[in-house]
Amino acid sequence: MAGKRADTLSFEAALEELEQIVQRMEQGDLPLDESLKQFERGIQLVRTGQARLSQAEQKVRILLADQDGEEQLVPFDPTQGEQ
């Protein structure tokens, strides 16, 4: 998965790859150049994840807005939507 551009990955795919990078780097046996490449890729993946979360937050805000565009606070109900 490391060959894909970070900004084209789903949140879950970016998180999974980031976890793999962290595990490899924690082992401490990567050469410095490879560690730097992995760190750079990790930063790209973090930014992708943050962007995906921001997009999701914006969608939720839009869905929860009333007719006047004002956000409405709605208590969280984990059973809502269950059938």
- What class do helices, strands and sheet pairing give? mainly alpha
Rounded Rg: 18 Å
Q: Please tell me what the overall shape is.
A: elongated
Query: Mean of the pLDDT scores?
Result: 85
Run of helices and strands: HH
**What profile does the largest beta sheet have?**
none
Short description:
With 83 residues, the chain is mainly α. It contains 2 helices and no strands. Belongs to the XseB family.
Structural account:
Pfam families: Exonuc_VII_S (PF02609). Its main location: cytoplasm. Belongs to the XseB family. Bidirectionally degrades single-stranded DNA into large acid-insoluble oligonucleotides, which are then degraded further into small acid-soluble oligonucleotides. Heterooligomer composed of large and small subunits. The chain has 83 residues and is mostly helical. It has a domain at 31-66. It has two helices and no strands. It has helices at residues 11-27, 32-64. Helix 1 runs antiparallel to helix 2. It is elongated and about 55 Å long. It starts with 10 loop residues before the first helix and ends in a 19-residue tail after the last helix. The mean pLDDT is 85.
